[in-house]
Amino acid sequence: MKRFFTWFIRLFTNRRTWVRQIFVAAIASATAWVIGDNLVFNGGLVAAIVCALSIRISLYKSVREGLGQIVGTAIGAGVALLTVYFFNFGVIAIGTTVLLCSVVARGLRLGEVASVNVPVTALIVIGPGISGSTAEHRLVSTLIGAAVAIVFSYFSHANTPAGRTVNQIARVGKRSAALISEMAEGVAAGFNQKQAGTWLAKARLLMEEIPTLRSQALEAKQYAKWSPLAGIDEAEALYVQGVAVEHMVVQVRTMARTLFDSTFDENRKEIVDRQIAYALSATSFAITAKIELIESDYNGSDVDNIAKDLRQAADNLTEELLEQAEKLPRSQFVRCISLVSQMKIIANSLDESSPALHNVQTPGEPSSAKVMGLSPVSRTTKSSRRLWITLRNFLRH
Asked: What pLDDT does 182 receive?
């Protein structure tokens, strides 16, 4: 029995972040119901539903989705009310509402979740028993629910956006270092195609962390622009570090792919495996050391030394490969030299000296992680301006 209770308690203690988020979401919905029911006649339920739909466990995402949902719902419900006025509440009203809200959500480039939430909220607004005052009450309740979701999303995390970015960078960096260390041990012991395939599969899974990492780094940067509690310089530095980790992960996957491809080379010789294993081990150690510095206060000289040691390891591997060049098949020699190139790119990412990090404009949040692609304010402003220009030209003619 004691073992069962220990297992049951660990289900929650090992998932503290998730437990915190669901409790915050539950409290936020209950609060929205109380506020909505007291400020608006029978507005508690609508406010609670909208709050549950809008809270995204992130202040940055909740603000964007909440604003987009309010604008989309207002437009969709407004036209839907006209439909109800002419056709009553029925098949035509429902179909028109869903169609229009889907178009509006597409026009605002809302994410997948918000694109569903907007029609749902609009249907709630024009639900049975609709009248002018009822529709007004439900629209106000929608605003209350979204506002409560935005406020409570701040408390969904025990850490700040910058702190969450550091945690995400550390998590991806440690997984990268562990994978390279595993590859080093395998190469030293003599690896086969199955092992190399496992490394490549793990590297591909590691690549899937990039959208989440970039989204979190962007959230920290945007949060620092308006919050006096966050430093802009720190957020900008974290964003660059996030991009550097992204470049590093790409090289880790390329290393795994290079080792996997080498297993198909029948002429491959194992005379340089020891040197390659040592170089991979040095790469893993360098990444681990950089992550430890990111998690603590560090200065530039520490990072420079880490990157310098890794470059030296890459140069040593190059010299040893050149000494064995006549004994190695050309295809194997080229693959080994590519490993050297990847090590140096990782070194440039560790000390952030690569021009690719500073001279190339980094794209914003990945489309797969976006909540809203365009600002509804700018979008509606542009649309109204175009409409006014068209109307003015028409009247002139």
From this structure: 94
